[in-house]
Design a protein that fits this description.
Elements lengths: L1 E9 L7 E9 L2 E6 L10 E4 L4 E4 L1 E6 L8 H6 L2 H17 L2 E6 L5 H8 L7 E4 L35 H14 L4 E5 L18 H13 L3 E6 L2 H10 L3 E4 L5 H9 L3 E3 L2 H10 L8 H24 L21 H7 L4 H7 L2 H6 L17 E4 L16 E6 L2 E5 L1
Helix pairs in contact: 4-5, 5-6, 7-9, 8-9, 10-11
GO molecular function: hydrolase activity, acting on carbon-nitrogen (but not peptide) bonds
Protein name: Metal-dependent amidohydrolase
Pfam family, one: Amidohydro_1
């Protein structure tokens, strides 16, 4: 099967724009890019790009495709099947926003990943962590004071709670066995879990090193949910590959992260969105969560600017699932607010993200022989990156050479 996209301007980060191009897709790969007429088969599908901008599909490095706010009350009330059906709606919303691949930080499992790969529903391709490692009483330990445990578990989906080097070793192996592409660790308190504080680290350095050593020997990267400054330092010392959120990072720790090539996924959208949108009226812990958010929003963007200035590589991630899906590319506006250029922000969610997940040879740019995961955009985001935040400007989305959004 061939598809010809004609009359487009190709926008790849870190490159000059290629104007008035024709792009030939064969099956799921980009076969040819040319300013001249391209030879095609008789039954080629033709898409007129109308002088719009063709870009690589974005990679969201921190999303939760199955989540709908992480409300414990919903875990308690809803049947398990609904947990999976959420992914269908959320997947389409995410693709329509221009995101064709995600790093899912839980709780998408191997079955959800296989279903997407088989085309049973439209959603981004997934790199999955299955479920995060959680210390007892730490962030996302959903054991309530009432004695009820709100953690969702079922056959093939391991519990994430563990303590001490032996338990974290075994749990890392269990999560790998469950099909994880990377390991996610809750290395500090967080906003959504009561009785934890984002200021405080979780897991000690010995536990963190045990996780990293076991993951790396199996060629799996390790990502840390971490707001705490001490927690960030613990994770860098333990050999983590990325820090997610990084709220209380400072100049000295930023320098250490840059020296050790530890990436930062700041997820600024989620905190700003939650702070201004609030929590449901029925959320018994809304006041506690809002108080935490107030402290985070106060310093987060300024601290991320320091990290950027110190040379830390920032990757685009949104924490979608904590907030409503489909707003993913609004994160690019927040990234440029920290000092990144429009081009750098776009790279953080395309070619740089592809490199981080080990897919630079197949994703992240509009290039011959790469997989045709592409978006057609109304306007030039290098002039105004906020164009990408409006889903109506994402005119078409192509995934594996197939049109999955068409305005």
């Amino acid at each position: 099967m061939e598809t010809l996209i004609k009359n487009v301007n190709i926008l790849n980060p870190n490159e000059e724009i290629q104007t008035s191009c024709n792009v030939l897709i064969e099956d799921k790969h980009i076969k040819q890019i040319s300013r001249k007429k391209v030879s095609t088969k008789n039954n080629v599908k033709i898409i007129d790009g109308q002088d719009n901008y063709l870009m690589p599909g974005f990679i969201d490095c921190h999303a939760h495709i199955m989540a709908n706010g992480f409300h414990k009350e919903e875990n308690m009330a809803n049947p398990l099947a609904l947990h999976f059906y959420n992914a269908i709606k959320h997947g389409k919303q995410t693709v329509d926003a221009g995101v064709t691949t995600i790093k899912d930080c839980g709780p998408a499992d191997i079955g959800v990943k296989i279903a997407q790969k088989k085309g049973l529903f439209i959603a981004p391709k997934m790199e999955i962590s299955v479920t995060p490692l959680v210390s007892t009483g730490g962030h996302f330990d959903l054991f309530l004071p009432s004695g009820f445990d709100m953690e969702i578990v079922y056959p093939g989906f391991p519990k994430g709670r563990c303590d001490g080097p032996l338990e974290v070793l075994k749990k890392t192996r269990e999560i790998k066995r469950a099909g994880a592409d990377f390991i996610k660790v809750m290395a500090s308190g967080g906003v959504l879990t009561t009785n934890t504080s984002p200021d405080y680290p979780q897991f000690n350095v010995e536990e963190l090193k045990t996780i990293v050593e076991e993951a790396h020997v199996n060629d799996l990267k390790v990502s840390a949910h971490c707001h705490s400054l001490k927690g960030i330092n613990n994770c860098v010392d333990a050999g983590f590959d990325s820090i997610e959120h990084g709220t209380f990072i400072d100049k000295k720790t930023s320098h250490k992260m840059a020296e050790n090539n530890v990436k930062l996924v700041p997820t600024m959208l989620v905190h700003d969105f939650l702070y201004h949108s609030g929590f449901p009226a029925w959320d018994n812990y809304a006041a506690e969560k809002t108080a935490k958010l107030k402290e985070i929003v106060k310093v987060h963007k300024e601290n991320i600017s320091v990290a950027y200035e110190e040379g830390v590589d920032l990757l685009m991630g949104t924490d979608s699932g904590v907030i409503a899906h489909g707003h993913n590319l609004e994160e690019l506006i927040h990234l440029t607010d920290t000092g990144m250029s429009n081009d750098e922000a776009i790279a953080s969610g395309t070619i740089n993200a592809a490199e981080f997940i080990g897919k630079k040879d197949s994703l992240g740019s509009v290039s011959e022989n790469k997989i045709a995961d592409l978006i057609l955009v109304n306007g030039n985001p290098l002039d105004d990156v906020s164009i990408l935040a409006d889903n109506d400007n994402i005119l078409k989305v192509i995934q594996n050479g197939c049109l999955v959004k068409n305005i």
